[in-house]
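In response to the reviewer comment on reproducibility (Comment 2.3), we provide here a single inverse folding case reported in full, input and output, so that an independent group could reproduce the run without further information from us. The structure tokens appear first.
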């Protein structure tokens, strides 16, 4: 990768994501309008109470977590099922039904594949995720295409080498 500063490091990210439900089949989410990963952790500060004023003399970080948030504009039964916490049932007439909030948790693995033309490509693999409802679905839109917001908690996994993490991001240098 080019050392900074370099115009080859400018980035216009595009890509797609695939979800594999636990004991299920991998599928493509379709077009992604927004995509973000948000890491978080709590900071615990110890304060020294001597010398006239309190001063922080030690910090420790606890409770690490990460979320993967995507906004989709392909309103499929599978995408809507994730947003509304339901399995999708194929009816005898070929239609698909979603039983709203019939599941308390939907788990699996998630992969993001960067396919942008400008900048380095970013590929993410998250071996254990848990979806939860985070946005609303509007069956009527007046200006833009309809959208579904999905948020997955990235769950920590301990590997055979003893390392624990939430997944992996791989950066491929721009050509």
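Designed residues, in position order:
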């Amino acid at each position: 990768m080019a050392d900074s500063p370099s115009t080859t490091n400018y980035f216009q990210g595009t890509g797609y994501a695939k979800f594999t439900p636990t004991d299920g089949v991998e599928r493509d989410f379709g077009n992604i309008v927004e995509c973000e990963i948000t890491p978080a952790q709590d900071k615990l500060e110890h304060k020294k109470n001597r010398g006239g004023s309190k001063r922080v003399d030690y910090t420790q970080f606890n409770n690490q977590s990460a979320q993967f948030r995507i906004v989709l504009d392909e309103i499929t039964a599978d995408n809507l099922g994730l947003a509304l916490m339901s399995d999708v049932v194929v009816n005898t007439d070929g239609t698909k039904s979603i039983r709203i909030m019939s599941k308390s948790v939907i788990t699996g693995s998630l992969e993001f594949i960067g396919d942008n033309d400008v900048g380095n490509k970013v590929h993410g693999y998250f071996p254990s995720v848990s979806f939860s409802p985070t946005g609303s679905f509007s069956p009527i839109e007046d200006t833009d295409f309809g959208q579904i917001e999905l948020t997955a908690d990235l769950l920590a996994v301990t590997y055979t080498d003893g390392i624990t993490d939430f997944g992996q991001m791989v950066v491929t240098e721009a050509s």
